[in-house]
Backbone:
């Protein structure tokens, strides 16, 4: 039995540790606190190791790990608080349309400022923050995001569009200040 | 305005998520359209900036070391000892093979039942037991849209003794589902709905009040969904509510 567990453990470590940095980064963005991020990652890895026997090798391990992390976050005190602030907005709006003459993007081209963007991401509600990070930072496909967040692909597209619009709206006043 | 339909798909195009044929058509359009190519350039810049800004936090060396230790592989036994253990394990496995499936199913089932009981208790103990407070099923049901990967029907409660108090998200085996809370004669009953295929462990097609559970419970599978009705109300009340759900889901 130990031999079998050892083999599973080997595979888990090999699969899970390469994700460690990015999982931590995502956890920190969600919790906005170093200690809570560490707790979240630790609990995620403990749950994943425990449930690894139920994971089907060959399926999407990364989406599986992120799903555990996100679900663990949502049931944490911080997560429940963050989820409680999620607006009941319709997610059926179409994608955002054309940009104007002076936009956050065009201003960014002139003054790339990572801190401004980080602040704007920080200010997003958690359901926008997470989908934006999964797409732009983790470079997940829509299918992977759908698996991670347990939502249909259509909702991924509309929510992502809203998240991008919210980020642009959040950047606009900051650039004006700058 | 000519490019409105193109611009509506710019993000999907830049995410490389359009079908192959549409990607090629889009490529050709962007090369020939000044307005769209300017937009593409601007949005690529935004994507890159977000990507850089998003890689903001790094774990400490100490945390990495602790994590590695916690999931580290156990020390390998010697090759010979490994074979001896493997032979012994094989003998035990042969002896236990006939019972393992049954035990596995039972432990998986017990695990699910006890998780459901925990979720119900946690709800009763919570200061805010419901996320959407409404006695109207036409308010509660839409609230779950986009939050869970399936749809389900809520029963009509007219002419019954049950009152809908509201609903909340629930998680079982790391998959999301719905929890509805009902009141009957001051007893609270939770109804959980999950996708059958997302649950581990073999559950009976239908089951009444599993043993060793401090609550009355009824569970069944219907239309690819797994329902659990649990509470300290009488078995008759649990069964009545279960029947209402079965009728609504039929």
Residues:
């Amino acid at each position: 039995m130990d031999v079998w567990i050892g083999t599973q453990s080997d595979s888990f470590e090999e699969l899970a540790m390469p994700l460690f940095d990015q999982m931590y980064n995502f956890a920190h963005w969600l919790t906005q606190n170093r200690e809570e991020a560490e707790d979240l990652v630790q609990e995620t890895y403990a749950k994943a190791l425990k449930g690894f026997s139920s994971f089907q090798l060959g399926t999407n391990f990364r989406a599986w790990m992120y799903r555990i992390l996100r679900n663990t976050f949502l049931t944490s005190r911080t997560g429940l608080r963050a989820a409680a602030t999620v607006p009941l907005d319709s997610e059926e709006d179409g994608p955002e349309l054309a940009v104007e003459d002076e936009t956050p993007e065009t201003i960014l081209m002139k003054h790339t400022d990572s801190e401004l963007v980080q602040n704007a991401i920080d200010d997003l509600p958690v359901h926008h923050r997470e989908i934006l990070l999964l797409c732009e930072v983790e470079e997940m496909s829509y299918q992977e995001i759908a698996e991670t967040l347990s939502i249909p692909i259509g909702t991924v597209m509309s929510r992502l569009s809203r998240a991008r619009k919210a980020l642009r709206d959040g950047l606009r006043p900051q650039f004006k200040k700058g | 305005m000519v490019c409105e339909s193109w611009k509506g798909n710019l993000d999907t195009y830049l995410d490389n998520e359009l079908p192959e044929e549409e990607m090629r058509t889009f490529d050709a359009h962007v090369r020939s359209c000044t307005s769209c190519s300017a937009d593409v350039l601007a949005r690529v810049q935004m994507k890159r900036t977000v990507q850089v800004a998003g890689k903001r936090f790094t774990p400490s060396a100490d945390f990495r070391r602790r994590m590695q230790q916690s999931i580290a592989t156990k020390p390998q036994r010697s090759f010979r000892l490994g074979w001896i253990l493997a032979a012994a394990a094989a003998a035990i496995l042969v002896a236990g093979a006939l019972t393992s499936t049954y035990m596995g199913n039972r432990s998986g089932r017990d695990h699910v039942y006890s998780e459901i009981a925990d979720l119900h208790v946690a709800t009763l103990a919570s200061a805010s037991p419901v996320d959407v407070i409404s006695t109207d099923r036409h308010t509660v049901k839409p609230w779950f849209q986009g939050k869970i990967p399936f749809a389900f029907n809520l029963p009509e409660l007219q002419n019954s003794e049950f009152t809908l108090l509201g609903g909340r998200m629930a998680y079982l085996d790391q998959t999301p589902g719905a929890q509805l809370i009902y009141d009957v004669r001051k007893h609270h009953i939770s109804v959980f709905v999950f996708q059958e295929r997302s649950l581990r462990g073999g559950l009976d097609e239908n089951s009444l009040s599993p043993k060793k559970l401090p609550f009355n419970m009824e569970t069944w599978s219907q239309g690819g969904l797994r329902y659990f009705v649990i509470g300290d109300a009488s078995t008759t009340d649990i069964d009545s509510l279960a029947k209402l759900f079965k009728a609504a889901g039929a």
